[in-house]
Structure formats: C-alpha cells, structure tokens
Write a structure and sequence with these properties.
This protein has about 300 residues and is α/β, with parallel strands linked by helices. The chain has helices spanning about 50-55, 80-90, 105-115, 125-135, 155-165, 185-200, 210-215, 235-240, 245-250, 260-265, 300-305, and strands spanning about 10-20, 20-35, 35-40, 65-70, 70, 90, 170-175, 205-210, 220-225, 230-235, 285, 295-300. The relative contact order is 0.14.
Length: about 300
C-alpha cells in the first residue's frame, strides 16, 4: 500500500558512473523513503555496488544527481555539507576482513570517524562511545583492545556495524553485509540490523544478489542489470508478479525449501536478444501496477502489452 505522505530521504536521479570509456552505471533513478529498507539486487558486475559507492562518494559520478534531504551531495560540495554527509550516511562493507585495518585495534577502528567529525570529544568520551557501540552490536567492551584477526567473520562484521553506528547515522548502505559470512551466523547479523533499524529509526539501502534474503528484510526492491534498473516494486509484489525476463530468471534461481519442488523447478535463462526491437521501439520506464501498488518496469510498447497480461 502506497503512503503518499512518505518523506523522501534519498533521491537518485539519472545517476551515471564511468570508468574510462566503460559505463558501469547508465542513468539509474530511484527514491528511498525515510525508515524503509530499499533493496538493490543484481548479478555480480551489474553495477549495484558501484551505485552504493557513488552515493557514499567513494567513487565519482560522471552524470546525474544524488539528492540527500534536498541537498545535492555528489560532485563538489562545501565543507559543512561534507561533514553532515559523513555523519549521517554510513556504509557496511561486504568483506568484514578486508574492510578493517588489521594493524589497528578495534578501539581506533570504531572511533576513527569521530576523530574528524567530533573534535569536541575527549579521549574518555570516545572510549565510552566505543564501549556503548560494541555493546549495542553484541560485543564486549573489552574487545576494544584487540586486533581484527582475533575475531570470527561474524564478529568482524559486527565491528564494522559498530563503526557505522557510532556516527549516529540516519542512512546506512549495507553492501552485501552477509555474503562473506557462514550461513549459521547470517541470520544473526540480519536480525541485528533489523533490531537496530527499529530502535534507531534507520533507513537502509541493502545491496545483495540473493533474492531469498531480500524477501525477508526489504520493503521495496529494484532489479539492476548491466548498469540499468529494469524493474522496481514492493517486495511481495515483485515476487508475486515479476515482469521483466531478467527478474524472472533471478527468481527462478532462488532455492526452494521443498526438495521435490526444487527438483521439478525449471530454471529460466535470461536472453537479452528478447529485446531485439529496442533500436526501432526503445524502452521506457512505465508503471504497470495499480493505484495502491506501484510496479515499474523498463519496457517498450510491445513488451508493455505483453506484461499487462502477466
């Protein structure tokens, strides 16, 4: 059900990212509402991580706008806005081992952001904030004196989450935060993120390739393929009525709990040749949902008529 009064926290308009002549992101647009978990899903190399890093300003954009709370935050921005963005937007990275400085103790890793944004704090205040952040993610405060290599993968990811939380952000970009973890502890991290969202009123951009995970944690999902968003809908609507053939192929690969149904399942293979008429009949972004349930898809006139019957 669509709430027309939702506040738009992040508005991405025609975002483009290029590496030399290669266009990794080709005009991506979407909005994220305050308090929701917005999913961005696609295969490896689809451009989803690049979108997240462009929003974080880790990599530069080559076109389009990233609007946060009404302010454009990509490109050159003044120092005051830069400090605001650093405080309010944080990222949880995919690999908890590679994203932590192995030569630094946990105390420094978690508090590093405070050193540049909260110069009003003394050493004791920072230590207390680190202890509180560690406790919030289920780690003991005495862990602050240890190095990352002394922890398991799940504990390292919790350290990464504490590093983000200590900045008291409003918006967190979670880039495949459980893909490098053992299956046995993935649920723990997901439950932790859900609890923190409720307690702090956080907004998430959750990036992943696993639709089965997305179904349980996201409010809406955008499907990205080769740098373009091809479908966007509320999560249950997308699972109930996938329109784009690429989305259908992704969903067909989701494992089923029933072994008999899993053996009988037919995988769908996405063939870009099915869009062979795009040169003469180019696609456009169109809403094929209802008044109460928006469902956007990238399609041309021929495909629109086809998708209406799905």
């Amino acid at each position: 059900m669509i709430d027309r009064n939702r506040e738009i926290l992040l508005d991405v308009k025609d975002l483009q990212v290029s590496f030399g002549k290669f266009k990794a992101v080709k005009g991506v647009s979407f909005q994220i509402y305050r308090g929701e978990t917005f999913g961005l899903v696609g295969e490896s190399g689809s451009g989803k991580t690049t979108v997240g890093r462009a929003i974080m300003r880790i990599i530069p954009t080559s076109g389009g706008d990233v609007i946060y709370k009404g302010d454009k935050i990509n490109g050159k921005i003044d120092r005051k806005l830069d400090q605001k963005v650093i405080r309010e937007i944080q990222m949880i990275f995919q690999d908890p081992q590679a994203s932590l400085n192995e030569r630094a103790k946990v105390d420094y890793i978690v508090s590093e952001g405070l050193l540049t944004t909260r110069k009003d704090l003394n050493a004791e205040q920072r230590r207390q904030m680190v202890a509180d952040a560690l406790l919030e993610v289920g780690l003991l405060p005495e862990f602050a004196g240890r190095f990352p290599h002394e922890f398991s993968g799940g504990q390292r990811q919790r350290i990464g989450i504490a590093r983000a939380l200590i900045m008291e952000p409003e918006f967190i970009i979670a880039d495949e935060p459980i893909s490098a973890l053992d299956v046995s502890i993935r649920a723990q991290v997901l439950n932790l993120l859900a609890t923190l969202q409720k307690e702090r009123g956080l907004t998430y951009l959750f990036i992943a390739h696993d639709l089965s995970v997305m179904r349980h944690i996201t409010d809406r999902i955008a499907v990205i393929h080769r740098g373009e968003i091809v479908e966007l809908a509320e999560t249950e609507e997308l699972f109930r009525r996938p329109l784009h053939p690429y989305t259908q192929a992704l969903l067909s690969a989701v494992p089923l709990a029933d072994p008999i149904a899993e053996r009988a399942k037919v995988l769908k293979i996405y063939d870009p040749a099915c869009h062979s008429d795009y040169d003469t009949n180019p696609p456009r972004w169109v809403n094929l949902g209802s008044e109460d349930c928006e469902h956007y898809v990238l399609a041309n006139d021929r495909e629109i008529e086809l998708y209406k019957n799905i």
